[in-house]
Amino acid sequence: MNFFSSILASNRKSLREGAFLKKIPLHVAIIMDGNGRWAEKRNLPRSAGHKAGVESLREVIRACIDLGIKYLTVFSLSSENWKRPENEVRFLLKLFVETLKNELGLLKNHGVRLRLIGNRRGIPPEVLKVYEDAEMETSANSKLNFNIALNYGSRQEIMEAVKKICSDIGNNKLKYDNLDEDLFSEYLFTGGIPDPDLLIRTSGEYRLSNFLLWQISYTELYFSRVLWPDFKRKYFIMAIKEYQKRQRRFGKV
Ligand code: IPE
Ligand code: MG
Fold first, then answer.
1. Is 195 in the active site?
2. How many DSSP H helices and E strands does the chain contain?
3. Ligand 1 pocket check: which of 51, 55, 99, 203 to mutate, most ligand atoms within 8 Å of Cβ?
4. Which of 95, 161, 167, 183, by CA, is between 20 and 30 Å from 225?
């Protein structure tokens, strides 16, 4: 391919994608599922599936930046995932830390702001530090807000919020009468982040698995049978196109 034909090809691609740039979700959340099955199908250890899944995330982040999606929230490790075999948990944490360290420069340069959502108290300190450093280093960015749910569980999040609210009312920091849905949302790990417009779950599982239960009250749900390590740009675009066909009415007619 020569210089001009490559420009033409990339123009065609952006035109094809550009045709639907009008109704872009502000916030996409993803339950990345199916790494283990992807590996098992290839007679590989589950860890190989997790490793392969990193590339899908890279592609999805790139697609979000290209499309102008402002918030991406991914379920990286749930508060229930600690019950997995110890070696798998250890592998996952190591993979997260290494990937984050390797990619931080790129994320920073591409305007990505990173934020950890989840119960920080339950995260090993050496892991937490890498995330908190990354949060600090990217805090001035605003092109894409990339939220990583780690040690996250929605019920725990809601319980924590309720406790904090009770204590704030007790300490006269908060007036009972002022408490409403918006203020409640501010007490969640996701405080300040708008609710997702679209939630994607891969691998043909039709569950929410304790992910963002409060936040997805009016979110469009999209389930893909594709396993996460295979969920590359084209599948993400398919999900966005499907979203654009949905009619959101928020309870109205
Ligand atoms: C998702 O893939 C990755 C994490 C939860 C970290 P799984 O590990 O759940 O893969 P399956 O569901 O066993 O195929
Ligand atoms: Mg799974």
1. no
2. 8, 6
3. 203
4. 95
Roughly how many angstroms between the first and final C-alpha of the chain, as a whole number? 51
**Conformation bin of residue 119: beta by default, left when phi > 0, alpha when psi is -120 to 50:** beta
Predicted local distance difference test score (pLDDT) of residue 248: 86
Among this protein's residues, is 33 annotated catalytic?
yes
Encode pLDDT of 171-200 as tens digits.
Answer: 999 999 999 999 999 999 999 999 999 999
pLDDT band at 20 (very low <50, low <70, confident <90, very high): low
Residue 221 tokens, joined: 């749900």
- The rounded Cα 218 to chain-centroid distance in angstroms is 17
Site to probe by mutation for ligand 1, drawn from 37, 148, 208 as the one with most ligand atoms within 8 Å of Cβ, is: 37
* CATH code for position 143: 3.40.1180.10
Instruction: Give the number of other CB atoms < 10 A from CB of residue 73.
Output: 25
The catalytically annotated residue of 66, 81, 141, 210 is 81
Q: Is residue 35 part of a domain?
A: yes
Report pTM. 0.91
Residue 141 beta carbon below 6 angstroms from any ligand 1 atom: no
Does residue 69's CB lie within 6 angstroms of at least one atom of ligand 1?
Answer: no
52 lines ligand 1 (CB under 6 A): no
Number of domains, the chain: 1
Q: What pLDDT score was predicted for residue 22?
A: 77
Determine the structural domain holding residue 206 and report its residue range. 23-153+195-245
Tell me whether residue 146 is in a domain: yes
Query: 71 in a domain, yes or no?
Result: yes
Q: For ligand 1, say whether the CB of 229 is within 6 Å of any of its atoms.
A: no
